[in-house]
TrEMBL record:
It comes from Lecanicillium saksenae. This is Uncharacterized protein. It comes from the Eukaryota.
Amino acid sequence: MEAEIDNLLQWAKKKGIEINGCTPKQLHGRGVGIVATRPLKANEVILRVPTDTLRSLANTPKDVVASLPGATVHAILSASLCLDRAADLDAWRAVFPSKADIHAVLPICWPSELRALLPHTATTLLARQSAKFNKDWAAVEAVYGGDLAKEDFLYAWLLVNTRSFYHTTRKTAKLPKEDHMVLQPVADLFNHSPTGWCAGAFNEDAFTITTQEAHEPGQELFIKYGSHANGGCGDNNGGLAYGYFELNTKFANIFGQLSRQDGGYFGHSCQNIRYDNGVLTAECGDGNGGTPTSSINLNEHICNVNGQLEAF
Ligand SMILES: C[S@@+](CC[C@H](N)C(=O)[O-])C[C@H]1O[C@@H](n2cnc3c(N)ncnc32)[C@H](O)[C@@H]1O
């Protein structure tokens, strides 16, 4: 894997992806992750991925998008990943987990006798995920069935599922949350930790990842993943607990549009903030002097996980 990582770093440099004080590394039990190569302080930008290197709906070949009207962005990005056989992608593809790795860890690929051992909550989520995949495959098979095998589409679909980020631009701010899904070479190598994570942020030009605390050389750097639409709320075990968090830390104002984002602090640039029947509404500055009214349905982003409110 060392040669593949060196190759990826050279490719990334050519693409304008800046990596500072850290490098991808094969880690026991976690595939590839990112580790510090020198002492890092808090607030250092360790990765900058220019917007034009993201794989998004906007830069998917127009013929692929046009051939799949009404398909989810997840389906379109996955089909495009399968159909794109350009050698330019080889450096990135070489560090993907293999099909065998994906099959080993993701229950959607497991035989039914193994799936039967899953706890109830996981079975519910898996049923939702399988339904979403089947719908996406039906849309793609109808157009590309002669060219794409279901197994290859599933592999690409699961890569998108486990490696995509949410990224909003002025153009996409008003689209549904799922339409903000993008793939980000190199950023997709950060593993997840629920604590001690680095912060991701984006603007029109780039996506950046910044340390929030000091790291020693060799220490792994993590980010904190959000959930996908096909994740959603888990089941609970009964009983009541008091769940609380500050909405301001979970939602952002993106060019006048309320959006789900950790550390978003929408309250800094929105006013007349109100809440009615699950919907948060406010007048939010759009950066052009306007303050359009924006609403977001909190039920789509907050759930009760075993008595604790969680945003996803
Ligand atoms: C965005 S990728 C991260 C890079 C990945 N490790 C790789 O080799 O390409 C997400 C996948 O990494 C793995 N992963 C992420 N965080 C992890 C952790 N804390 N421990 C173990 N595996 C993790 C899971 O398989 C997850 O689906």
